[in-house]
């Protein structure tokens, strides 16, 4: 697809912005270990089919650290929106409906006549069905998780947070058509409304009942825990070196021989690794998921002639 591509370097990223300066560019900062990023990549692909005049770019946050640092990307997924080479908006988190709304609003340039290739407005029921299925768990609420605009929405957001539920949300106050349409579509007159895999679960009272009965854990998808993220990172390559810097700034051939993951990526990962492996400093070297140690340990292994066999996973 011509308007959906990957940026794998700073130069390529800058060229994409320059070449698409007259229209909207949407950049998805993602990570291979985060399942919600895969889900949002699918959403991007669908949006790219509908919005032919918008450029959609996927950029792996840890693989192009210069861009991630410049725009202060501290979590994934994160979306940045550019026009004329300048950042005009930002969206943090896996919120498919909000992403769709921003693409429609920012890509329209404030309205105007439809252009060739634009998709006509879809039927309301089709739109509601798409929104309900935009994520494995969808919360239709007043406001956003960061700024709920009613007590019921605030309570349900807190419950989902307390139980590590992974979800996307839609602000019904931003679209009266969706707000009224959902009441009829699902035969549920009040908000908030929660859907799992396209099926209505209910509102706040139902969610509270699920908590009390212990059924909530098996009803909703879970957020990937920090421990799971760390396990995925540590096992991303047979040899993993977590260090301060990258392949370009590593000055010795030994460092350049490894797959290097920058530990700047999030504060939680930096601190989590220290606790997970009970090793308080960096660099940290892992082979086949097992911690070898830091610089002093590697030096000792080299002096003892054991380094090569350790790197091969023989010890």
Describe this structure in words.
- The protein is of the alpha/beta class and 315 residues long.
- 40% of the residues lie in helices and 20% in strands.
- The protein is built from 14 helices and 13 strands.
- The protein has helices spanning 10-19, 35-50, 65-70, 96-107, 124-132, 151-162, 176-185, 204-213, 216-219, 226-234, 253-256, 267-276, 295-303, 307-311, and strands spanning 4-6, 25-30, 55-60, 78-83, 86-92, 137-141, 168-171, 193-196, 199-202, 239-243, 259-262, 284-287, 290-293.
- The strands form three sheets. A five-stranded mixed β-sheet has the order 1-3-2-4-5, sandwiched between helices. Strands 7-6-8-9 form a four-stranded mixed β-sheet. The protein has a four-stranded mixed β-sheet with strand order 11-10-12-13.
- A hairpin with a 2-residue loop joins strand 4 and strand 5.
- Helix 5 (124-132) crosses helix 7 (176-185).
For the structure shown, list the relevant keywords.
315 residues, alpha/beta, five-stranded mixed beta sheet, four-stranded mixed beta sheet, 14 helices, 13 strands, Glutaredoxin, iron-sulfur cluster binding
